[in-house]
Structure formats: C-alpha cells, structure tokens
Design goal:
Chain A: It is a multi-pass membrane protein. The structure holds two protein chains of two kinds. By secondary structure, chain A is an all-alpha fold. Chain A contains twelve helices and two strands; from the N terminus they run αββααααααααααα. Chain A has two domains: about 35 residues; about 230 residues, MetI-like (MetI-like fold), CATH 1.10.3720. In chain A, about 75% of the residues lie in helices and about 0% in strands. In chain A, a hairpin with a 2-residue loop joins strand 1 and strand 2. In chain A, helix 1 packs across helix 12, helix 2 packs across helix 12 and helix 8 crosses helix 9. Chain B is α+β, with helices and mostly antiparallel strands. Chain B has two domains: about 220 residues, 3-Layer(aba) Sandwich (Rossmann fold), CATH 3.40.50; about 120 residues, Beta Barrel (OB fold (Dihydrolipoamide Acetyltransferase, E2P)), CATH 2.40.50.140. In chain B, about 25% of the residues lie in helices and about 35% in strands. Chain B has eight helices and 20 strands. In chain B, the strands form four sheets. In chain B, strands 6-7-8-3-9-10 form a six-stranded mixed beta sheet, with helices on both faces. A five-stranded antiparallel beta sheet of chain B has the order 13-12-11-14-20. In chain B, a hairpin with a 2-residue loop joins strand 9 and strand 10. In chain B, helix 2 packs across helix 3 and helix 2 runs parallel beside helix 4. The longest helix of chain B has 18 residues. Chain B is elongated, with a radius of gyration of 25 Å. Chain B starts with 6 loop residues before the first strand and ends with a strand. The model of chain B has no long low-confidence stretch (mean pLDDT about 90). The chains are: A mainly alpha, B alpha+beta. The interface between A and B is medium-sized, with 21 and 27 residues.
C-alpha cells in the first residue's frame, strides 16, 4: 500500500483554516455593513426619490438637493445652525479644556471625584436636565430671581428663555460633559514625569501648559470638539424646548419633514446633508492632529 | 583646607505619613565631583535626589547651594538638571526640540538655541539625529538625548536617577565609560543614584552608601571596598565573608576575636570597640588562602561546592562550628585548583590586615 501524498494529508485541516479565516473576515466586514452602512445607504437612496400627491415616486432625481439650495429657508437655517453649533463648540472646548486641566492638576485621589461630579449629568435623564435649565432661565427662574434679589435688574429679563441665547446656553450646558471627558482622558495619558522634566528644565507652569499639556491634549480636544459639534448640530429637541419660535434649527427641519410634513425623501436628503456636514467636521478635526501627538 | 561645598544637605529628614524615609542625612557635593548615592531599593536614595531637584519637600534640615538656602527656590529656578530614570523625553518634540527646551523656556533667541543644540548633540555623539523623534531612537540614543537636554543649560550639578538601569549589559558598560568621560570633560558635578555597586565603584570619585534612610558610610570606592565600617557596607559592596564573634583584646588596630571556630585576628579601621562587645569579622573571598596540608591548630573547613565562573573559581566551604555560614573563596581559574573535590578538608587562613573588624549592629 502506497503512503498517502503529504499534500493530501495536510489538505483537510488547511481547508478548515481557510473556512475559519473566511468566517472571521466575513464577520469583520459584515457586522458594520449590516448595522451601520446599510441603514445609512437606505436613507441615501430615499433621498433621491420624490414625493408626489403623498406617494413616493421611485425615480432617481436630485430635486430634493436642489430644493435645499433654492427653496424656502433651508439653506439659511442650515447656515445659522452651523454658526450656532460652531459657537457652542468653541465655548465648550475652551470651558472643557480649562476644567480638564483643573482636574488634571489635582491629586490623583481628588481627580476622580471631581471628574465624576462633572460627569453626573450623563447619568440623568434628558427630560430632567432640560426642565432644570428651563427653570433656571425662565421668567420666574433662578437666574432672574437672583438678579432681582441683588437689585441688578428691576424687571425679569424675558429674553433669557425662548431666544437664541437660551438655545446657546442650554446646548452648551447639556453637551459640556461630552467635551470634558475626552480632553481629560487625553491629559490623563501624559506621563507624570513630563511635567517634572519641564519644570526641571526651567519651564514655568504656564510654559508647561503651552508646551506639554495642551499639545498632548490635542487629540482629546479635537475629539471633544467633534462630539460637541455633532451633538449640537443634530439636536432637534433642545431648540424647541428652550427656543420656542426662535428655535428653528436644521435638526428641527429634518424632524419636521419626517414627523410633520411626512416628506421622507426631502427629509432624507436633508439628513444626508447633515451627515455630510458632521463627517466634514470629523475630517477637519483629524487634520489638526500630528502623528507625533498620538502615542 | 575647608572649601565651601557646592551643595550641602544638612541633617535632612523626610517622612511619608508615619514612615520615616530619611533620617539625619548629611551630604556635601564638591564642584566637579562624580558622587554616587548607592543603596538598595527602598533605602531612600531616590528621595534624596528628588529633594535636591525640588520635586519633594523636606521635614527637617536645610538644603544649601553655595551657602544659599534652596527651601524657597522652585524646581524651575534651581541650577540643576535631572536625567530621569526613564528619560522623560517629550514624545511630541523631536530630538532638537527636546534638547533645546531648557533654552527655549529661558527665552533665548532661536539662532542661539539652534547653534547650541548642534553643539551639545555633537558632544553626546548624536550630531545627525536632531530631526528624529524619541520613538525612532534606540535606548542608548535616548539616554544621550536626555543627557544632552540636561547639560545644555550648563547647570552646576546634574542629577542622574538610575539612568543606566533600562539598558542591556553591553550598552550599559559603554554608557558608563561615556558618562565618566563626559563628566570629566564638562567639569560639572554629577550626583548619580544607583543600586548597582559595581557601577558605583566603576564610575564614582566618592560613594555614599545609604541604607534605611541613613548614611551607612561614605568614601572613595577603594576605601569603601577595602575598609568597610558597617556590616551592611561590607556585604553590599562586593562579596564578603562575615563571621560573628566577641572582641577579647586589641593591640593597636589588631584585634583578637573569639568566634565559634576559635580565636581569630582582625584589623579595625577607626575607633576600637570595647572588649566584650559583639563584632563581625569580614574577609573578602579573594583574601582567603587554602592549604591542603594543614599545620597543627589551623582552621579546617570542608569543600561544599566548587563553581567555575570563567576567569574565576568560587569555592564554598563549610566549617563545622559555623553551620549557618558558607565561606566563599575566590581563585583565579588558571592556578592549581583542578585537584579540588567536594568533601575535601582544607585549611583556611588570611592575613590579619585583610580581615576587617566591624561592630555588629
């Protein structure tokens, strides 16, 4: 009896190895495809359809995108929402960086406590947070009563609530923890002896902040900015809750196309524009980073 | 000849909570000196360095620099620079930026910084690597960058916190030679921290042995090796055979010691302990003689182990009266030691001058 050729003997286990590789590659690609890419593609597809007499017409067209640029006040609302989100992002990044540096400078034991207290809002329901903000900003709210009691004003300021300022304040307050966390985590990764070394070489605390802390915190600052921008730009509830009629932001337009006008194709097109805007923000944030800053 | 020392740690004490880590530490550092603070881990040697650097406060004593108290001088104003154990190179700055950082924060003009950085990189042998990032360097190169960064501001004193401990054996020997020659060339005082006694002996002008937050002994490497004064120094610097006993009489520096193995002779360095006090007799393995044909009354021991170590042979012997002590004897391997057998009985001996008498702690 002839011995079996070696290739035949090693065949079956080899084939099983290939099958296993295929399964893993399939899962690696398939899971994101199934749960992320397909849902997005579905509304991208819908955005190229149109609505006629309450019925969706399954013909590909750019009409919805044309409407964004030419009809009504879509573009104008888009631009004002962009400006609002940019402002909220700017103030939040400044505040969150200051807070994160403050926490970073504490002793390790107190750091956790302070960080947790800033993260507490993340454990609370949105509805509680938004009504607390309303009760603070309202006509008979904490802020007005306080200013009245101090004699700084003699009539409550009405513009505190149901104004663009109110939306600005509410969004900034709501999304501040989302900026603090990534910035703090980036600072937390700075080796302790870097600060010792910079002081040893003659740097003042302010120079150490400029040369060590902020450059190494940059990935976190970029992430915090992206989080804040994405969350504010897409928020369609907060502007309504504290902005009243003033609060007509792009998120609310998208929402109204789906929820009120029942124009899903136009709503989808606006949603695609929203998505493209946030992806652009992510790309911009990525551009500000140098490879050397990430270790 | 009393010259004012460059740096003087006067009676420094330090505690962490209820743990006393430093107790009455008194150290002077002279200009241009290579001083090593040697001790096992937990001895307080790193704390001493951190106190000099300003990273750690003190609970008692004074830290004087050229007669000026440094208590109120913050880290960034102290005229010292530190080479950290893991170098602490800023990974987001390239080599030139790292090295020039001390000048940058002092507001020096860019051209001056660039010239000086090139100069210092040349000194440490890294002339062409200014544009590299720390992650692109080898361990020895990082070490040199850390040194360059520390010397560029021309400090009066450089503090080195076990800088060679992360390097492999060959590179370490090479860096030791480099450190020593650099220190000679620059004429800056080095305060070097290590737990490696061989490294300390090879590099230092003077060694301070620290143990449990106190100074055990200080002196030139050769002095410490030849004349240890405490059992700790005797055991920590090189190998030593320690035999416990009681001092019976002394004639000048030569003492008679009663041990379990009989009456032995030793030489004392410094004040002679009072007769009757417990002492230790310390003999280096290379100072013990072995004789196959013992004279009457000789000290007899049995060979327990023979270890060939290349250039040396280490013979371990056991004396019946000293069951807890393996006597170690070192011999050059080229001599007539091939006839040795385990279990063989040999007469051991030493010159009185080679046995140091230490007060037992």
């Amino acid at each position: 009896m002839n011995p079996m050729p070696s290739s035949a003997r090693s065949g079956p286990p080899r084939r099983r190895g290939i099958a296993r590789d295929l399964l893993w590659h399939g899962l690696n690609l398939g899971l994101p495809l199934l749960f992320v890419v397909l849902p997005i593609l579905s509304f991208v597809l819908v955005s190229f359809w149109t609505l006629k007499d309450g019925q969706i017409v399954h013909v590909l067209t750019l009409a919805n995108y044309r409407a964004f640029f030419t009809e009504g006040s879509y573009l104008q609302v888009y631009l004002s929402t962009l400006a609002l989100s940019a402002q909220v992002t700017l103030i939040n990044v400044v505040l969150a960086t200051a807070i994160a540096v403050f926490i970073f400078r504490r002793t390790p034991r107190t750091r956790f406590l302070i960080l947790m207290s800033f993260m507490l809002p993340l454990f609370m329901s949105y509805i509680i947070k938004i009504y607390s903000i309303r009760s603070i900003l309202g006509q008979r709210g904490l802020l007005n009563e306080g200013l009245l009691a101090l004699g700084l004003i003699d009539q409550p300021i009405e513009a505190l609530l149901f104004s663009r300022t109110a939306i600005f304040i509410a969004l900034a307050v709501l999304y501040l923890p989302y900026a603090i966390l990534p910035i703090y985590l980036a600072l937390d990764r700075i080796p302790a002896n870097y600060l010792a070394a910079s002081a040893d070489l003659g740097a003042t605390p302010l120079q150490a902040l400029r040369d060590i802390v902020l450059p190494l915190g940059r990935p976190g600052i970029a992430a915090g900015a992206v989080f804040t921008f994405i969350l504010t730009f897409g928020d369609f509830v907060t502007p309504q809750m504290v902005g009243g009629t003033q609060g007509f932001t792009f998120g609310r337009i998208v929402f109204s196309q789906f929820g009120l006008a029942l124009n899903w194709p136009l709503g989808s097109a606006l949603a695609v524009i929203l998505l493209a805007t946030t992806l652009l923000a992510v790309a911009l944030a990525g551009l500000t980073l140098r490879r050397e800053h990430v270790r | 000849m009393r010259v004012q020392p460059l740096l003087h740690l006067e009676n420094i004490s330090k505690r962490y909570g209820s743990v006393r880590v430093l107790d009455g530490i008194d150290i002077t550092v002279a200009d241009n000196e290579f001083l090593t603070i040697l001790g096992p881990s937990g001895s307080g040697k790193t704390t001493i360095l951190r106190i000099i650097g300003g990273f750690e406060g003190i609970d008692g004593g004074r830290l004087m620099f050229e007669g000026r108290d440094l208590a109120s001088v913050p880290i960034n104003r102290r005229p010292f620079n530190t080479v950290f154990q893991d170098y602490a190179l800023f990974h987001h700055m390239n080599v030139a930026e790292n090295v020039g950082y001390g000048l940058k924060v002092r507001g020096r003009p860019k051209a001056e910084i660039a010239a000086k950085v090139a100069d210092v990189l040349e000194t440490v042998g890294l002339g062409a690597l200014g544009a590299r990032y720390p992650a692109q360097l080898s361990g020895g190169q990082r070490q040199r960058v850390a040194l360059a960064r520390a010397i560029i501001c021309e400090p009066r004193l450089i503090l080195l916190d076990e800088p060679l401990s992360a390097l492999d054996v060959e590179l370490r020997a090479q860096m030791q030679r480099f450190l020593k020659s650099l220190q000679r060339r620059l004429g800056i005082a080095f305060v070097f921290i290590t737990h490696d006694q061989e490294e300390a002996i090879a590099l230092s002008d003077r060694i301070i042995v620290v143990h449990r937050g106190r100074i055990e002994q200080e002196g030139a490497p050769e002095q410490l090796y030849r004349r240890p004064r405490t059992p700790f120094t005797a055991a920590f610097l090189g190998e030593n055979n320690l035999i416990p006993g009681t001092l019976t009489s002394a004639e000048g520096a030569v003492c008679q010691v009663e041990t379990a193995a009989g009456r032995l002779q030793a030489t004392v360095d410094g004040p002679v302990p009072s007769p009757g006090s417990p002492v230790l007799l310390a003999v280096r393995p290379e100072h013990i003689t072995l004789t196959a044909n013992p004279a009457p009354g000789a000290l007899l021991a049995e060979v327990a182990e023979i270890r060939f170590l290349g250039a040396n042979i280490l013979i371990e012997l056991r004396h019946p009266a000293l069951p807890d002590t393996l006597l170690k004897v070192r011999r050059l391997a080229d001599g007539g030691t091939t006839g040795l057998r385990i279990g063989q009985s040999l007469a051991i001996g030493w010159a009185a001058a080679d046995a140091a008498l230490l007060a037992a702690s």
